[in-house]
Amino acid sequence: MTSLDFRGVYPAMTTPFHEDGSIDFEQFQADVRRLEEAGVDGIVPVGSTGESATLSHDEHVEVVEAAVEAVEDVPVIAGSGSNSTREALELSRRSADAGADALLLISPYYNKPEQAGLVDHYRTIADEIDLPQIVYNVPGRTGSNILPETAATLAEHPNITAYKAASGDLGQISEVVERTRDEEFAVLSGDDALTLPILSVGGVGAISVTANVEPARVGAMVHSALQGDYERARDIHHDLAPLNRHLFSETNPIPVKEAMEIRGYGPARLRPPLTRLTEENTEELRRLLSDLEAEQAIPDGGADE
Fold it and tell me: What does this protein do, in the record's words (predicted)?
């Protein structure tokens, strides 16, 4: 297994669609190249931001293959989770065969397993797939919460090497860091509004929605914090805060796809049952993006410092 330390910024990529609902692979690969040129540390296709719930298994794997084909030097972390352990294992195996460098595994949704079931689920996949794997805790989507003691138990497995934190509970996230300090285990922000606070308690990076439209700023904030320059990181955090909030004004990825269309990164098409951003929220989003464009360039360096 090739280890990854997961330090830095990893955009949770969207999946662009043609008017007929098929995947626009040309636009997707253009997005991959754009993000890599902006200095991101890796990319994360086919997660929840990538509308994985509406993709067939074959489409899912085709997106991973397209990402692997398009990147030059950064890792591809493929979303491959499911509420079925068998299905997650199949997707993980196929993603690994497609060339993914690591896997992002959302905790099982809807069926709400107990903590023992979560441990069994993740260990089953980690036993079978020899790639770095990220446990993804997002109770707002799954209906269950991976507790800190469960995260610590999972961190003992050599293939389970990171935790994406999107619970909104900074105390719990801090406890995960505390309990896993003796393991080679990275805690990543999965909530753009809390990325800087998570870094302050020991997180090392972010799987970021906002980085789809502001990759350089998000990267500069994260790397500044990792280098101990919290004054600069705070400045960028506050510059991005209104956009971070608004990108979750409606269900993700509705707002971020609209933002990408406003920025000229392809149409904001979504697969049903998701719908386009409301007119009121779109106008506010245009204003926020315009304000960021009008601001002075990122101060004192770039994302890769």
Answer: Catalyzes the condensation of (S)-aspartate-beta-semialdehyde [(S)-ASA] and pyruvate to 4-hydroxy-tetrahydrodipicolinate (HTPA).
Chain centroid offset of residue 291 CA: 25
pLDDT band at 299 (very low <50, low <70, confident <90, very high): low
Q: Look at residues 205, 196, 157, 209 and name the one whose alpha carbon lies nearest to residue 180.
A: 157
Edge to edge, what strands does the sheet with 133-137 contain?
8-11, 205-208, 186-189, 160-165, 133-137, 102-106, 77-79
Catalytic residue among 10, 109, 136, 163: 136
Instruction: List Cα–Cα distances, 269 to 125, 141, 211, 281, in angstroms.
Output: 33, 21, 19, 16
pLDDT tops 60 at residue 2: no
* Dist. CA 268–CA 249, nearest whole Å: 16
Pairing assessment for the beta strands 205-208 and 8-11 based on DSSP bridges: parallel
Q: What is the pLDDT of residues 195-220, one digit of tens each?
A: 999 999 999 999 999 999 999 999 99
State yes or no: 125 annotated in a binding site.
Answer: no
164 tagged catalytic:
yes
DSSP 3-state assignment of 26?
helix
Following DSSP, what letter does each residue of 254-270 receive, concatenated? Answer: HHHHHHHHHTTSS----
**Residues constituting the chain:** 305
Whether residue 52 contacts residue 19, with contact meaning beta carbons closer than 8 Å, is answered with no
According to the annotation, is 49 in a ligand binding site?
yes
Q: Which amino acid is at 117?
A: G
Q: Which domains does the chain carry? A: 8-226 (3.20.20.70)
SS3 state of residue 250: coil
